[in-house]
Amino acid sequence: MTNKSQVAVQEKTIVDNVLNRVNEMQNEGSLDIPDNYSPSNALKSAYLKLIDGKKGQTLLDKCTPNSISTALLEMVTLGLNPSKNQCYLIPYVDKLELVESYLGTVTRLKRVEGINDVKAHAVYKNDVLDREMDLTTGDMKIVKFTPSVNDRGELIGALGLVVGDKGVLHTEYMDMDQVKKAWNQGAMKGNSPAHKNFPDQMAMKTVINRACKMYANTSDDSDIFSNNINRTTLEVKEEIEKNGNKEVLDFADDEVIEIEEKNIDKEIDQETGEIFNSNSDAEEIDF
């Protein structure tokens, strides 16, 4: 049993080590911290998750100190905060891995100069949605979108918009067939309580995730943003593919990562922000 004094020492050691490294990187000019991001607050939030022992062994006890420090440093370099569900700390055997959520993707994209927000709207059968292609850029543009005032009818898709200083920079539309195919790649296959009870919210989160990635990978700002957009999940996948005894776990609309079943406490749907316990009931739904 870890007593309070031991916990305080562990917290000070982990937080101080990472903060020291962050300061070194800043002095070297190799790390820029966003103006509205506090590494200290994010690290303290992460530490609370590391010592959460409600379901048995804590992550602090389970994972190696080096992997913990590495995951926390990566969290800070990406400018993410786990208390806002922008990222998740996932144990794999004795190693801690950081996985960025769709909220983290949105957060980082909004830090790119010229981008103000990322919006999404559910689209129903009785809504009016007219689109056209801009022949000068090849981009799809929304000419008109008028939600029905009365009965909107069946949910048919979702619209995602990356909004900048000069208006809409990128438009992404997914019909429900595309949305459901994205859901079907996950462990829950779109059958979680949230997917069933709030399909409009889940569809909006799916199209937001797609819009962010498409914009980052196709715009002139991609070098600023996309260098690390999928790095964390890809590194986890490469690590896990080397090992057996696996369970499919959904992290994004186009990614499936396998996690060893006996070493993970929760299933996390990165795309929707849902966290599931072992009996597949929704434990947390972030709207």
Q: Explain this structure to me?
A:
The protein has 287 residues and is an alpha+beta fold. The protein has a domain of 100 residues. It is built from ten helices and twelve strands. Strands 3-6-7 form a three-stranded antiparallel β-sheet. Helix 1 runs antiparallel to helix 2 and helix 5 packs across helix 8. The two termini are 36 Å apart. The C terminus is likely disordered.
Largest sheet: 3 strands, antiparallel
Multimeric status of the protein: single chain
Tell me, what's the shape?
Answer: globular
Strand line-up in the sheet with most strands = 3-6-7
What are its keywords?
3-stranded antiparallel beta sheet; 12 strands; 39% helix; alpha+beta; 10 helices; 287 residues
In short:
The protein is an alpha+beta fold. It has helices at residues 4-28, 39-50, 59-62, 65-78, 102-109, 176-184, 193-197, 199-218, 222-225, 231-240, and strands spanning 87-92, 95-100, 115-124, 128-133, 140-146, 155-164, 167-175, 247-252, 255-259, 267-269, 274-276, 282-284.
How is this fold's topology laid out?
Elements: H1 4-28, H2 39-50, H3 59-62, H4 65-78, E1 87-92, E2 95-100, H5 102-109, E3 115-124, E4 128-133, E5 140-146, E6 155-164, E7 167-175, H6 176-184, H7 193-197, H8 199-218, H9 222-225, H10 231-240, E8 247-252, E9 255-259, E10 267-269, E11 274-276, E12 282-284
Antiparallel strand pairs: 1-2, 3-6, 4-5, 6-7, 8-9, 10-11, 11-12
Helix pairs in contact: 1-2, 1-4, 5-8
